[in-house]
Amino acid sequence: MTAERLVYDDALIRDILTTLKTIAMVGASTSQMRPSYFAMIYMQGKGYRVLPVNPRYAGQTLLGETVHPDLASLPVRPDMVQIFRRSDEVGPIVDEAIRLRIPVVWMQLGVRDVEAAA
Fold first, then answer.
1. pTM to 2 decimals?
2. Residue (of 90, 92, 63, 96) closest to 78 by Cα position
3. Taking the chain, what is the end-to-end CA distance rounded to the nearest angstrom?
4. Running DSSP on this structure, what letter comes out for residue 94?
5. Which of 25, 51, 92, 97 is the most exposed place for a label (fewest CB within 10 A)?
């Protein structure tokens, strides 16, 4: 894995964020101290529906949404998967997103898996 910085065109990011409505957040946490918790509040505040995915909390309610154990268990196909997991855990999540035909995968800052990106 290289340390080069990834740069995406602002227009691409804007297009993604203005066309999607539903986000599956893999690694969503019920802890108010975790980055995923803040991100979920922020994205909900911007009008997105955020479906939390975390097998540890499956069946619980997080910020008004039921937590699901995996992407395949979601009641709807999301427009994007947002991953809050370690880089070494990304590959199977990306594979599942591809299998389910989810068009966008977004990872938290610092999370990178070159093989999964390919």
1. 0.86
2. 96
3. 12
4. H
5. 92
Q: Residue 1's CB: how many other CB atoms inside 10 A?
A: 8
Indicate the pLDDT class of residue 40, thresholds 50, 70 and 90: very high
What is the rounded distance in angstroms from the CA atom of residue 118 to the CA atom of residue 76? Answer: 26
DSSP letter string, 23-74: EEEET--S-TTSHHHHHHHHHHHTT-EEEEE-GGGTTSEETTEE-BSSGGG-
pLDDT tens per residue across span 6-18 = 677 889 889 888 9
Which candidate, 57, 44, 93, 87, places its Cα nearest to that of 72? Answer: 93
Q: For residue range 69-116, what is the model confidence (pLDDT) as tens digits? A: 999 999 999 999 999 998 888 899 999 999 999 999 988 765 666 665
pLDDT at 87: 82
Residue 36 contacts residue 25 (beta carbons within 8 Å): yes
What is the distance, to the nearest Å, from the Cα of residue 84 to the centroid of all Cα atoms in its chain?
6
